[in-house]
Amino acid sequence: MQTSKLLLSTYHNMLGSLDGWLAKAAEHPRGDALLGDKLADDMFPLARQIRFVCNLPGEAMNATSDVAFASSDIDDETIASARERVASTRALIADWRSVALGADDKPVILSLANGMTFDLDTEGYARDWALPQFYFHLMTAYAILRAAGVPLGKVDYVGYMLAHMRQPAAAD
Length: 172
Prior knowledge:
Distance between the termini: 40 Å
Largest sheet: 2 strands, antiparallel
Order of helices and strands: HHHEEHH
């Protein structure tokens, strides 16, 4: 499978999981206040983790396939608006499935805000940057919600796998 297509499928599935977590968070007694929670003082709050998770697919598509994308620098103030952001990101991903994707050996220049620059190809960018960053912020969001008492478990993380589950054989 081409790297960019793998990224799109991964992002789509995991953003669906994030939406489910946020649906449960909306039912939590603290509701929107959860968006300010952090795991540690030197980490970003839940709202920023969600923003990063939703920016990363567009940033990856821009880097690997020259899709125009401008990252947001605004955090959501409500769980409802965070869920809307997730839904909008998933819609973009659906649209990108029809885009001519870059080859796995396409050069990618990754420049960070701190001045560091890395020369990669699409495959290396996806493996060493795009997916690790996505999962870091996604799992930080999961951990913040779990630490706050939102009832999440493994099935909430990989619920999309249920579509691939074998049905038990009929008893004779």
